[in-house]
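Schema walk-through. Below, the input block comes first and the output block second. Nothing else is stored per chain. Lengths vary across the set, and this one has 316 residues.
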Amino acid sequence: MGPELSVVIPVYNEAPNLEALVAEFSGVLGNLGRPYEILLVDDGSVDGSFDVLSRLQRADAHLRVIQFRRNFGQTAAFAAGIAAARGALIITADADLQNDPADIPAMIVEIDRGADIACGWRRARQDAFLTRRLPSIIANRLISWATGVRLNDYGCSLKVFRAEVIKPLRLWGEMHRFLPALASEFGARIVELPVNHRARRHGVSKYGLSRTIRVMLDLLTVKFLLSYSTQPLRVFGLIGGAMGLVGAAIVGYLGIMRLLHEVSILERLPLTLLGILLLFSGMQLVTLGLLAELQARAFLESRARPAYAIRQILES
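--- output ---
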């Protein structure tokens, strides 16, 4: 019988944390009485993390280790682990020991009650305020407003998903934090629970303010995917049509003034150029929307290549 629970944990230069990490998750999952596996994705670590993972995997058949050829990023690591997961429920977490696995049973209860996704909320977050918590608060409010999915903590990696909800989703960039919003497009039922957040024991955070900028850029992509991915002509056509109508009105007005009042177009050259610019720009945007429609259809019918390259997989 295969595992019922799959835990996916990206690992990047976390060698001092790995033994405690595996011990904590194994203890909690073992007490649940359900078959489980822990997938640890080594995202190109250079501190000996893979050696530690290899040793731990040889001693525990529940562990599976995926090694990347180089560092591809946290989202790619989550994508690889999710693709390889065999459980009906997929749990995601970080490897820095700040997520508390003791919160997992309560999150699984919410899934058993009918939710498709249970998200952790680090209400008492143990991070620096200016560099971590404040940007996170701003980003969470902006993401909630843009996507329509109201969550207090999009950045918390501790989440539980039904496999059939998360596996079809494609991930790139910093998209792993937008999984609830992406899943909501298909009617996923989402709940959020306060979870324990602990201070980092070893090592340093891999995230900084620069990551917030990348998240905001990815938010634009998510907003477009949620609203216009299958009908891009709506956004391009709306803007282009409005510009074209304004341009046509200006050109029409100037034409009437020239014919009825013999006003030279050269006397109103800036307005003439503005009208022509708006008219042709509007036509170009409508054409771009049509081309985007064709590309969207081709994209939906094709299979995107993965955003990572696996060197090897260790499993029993």
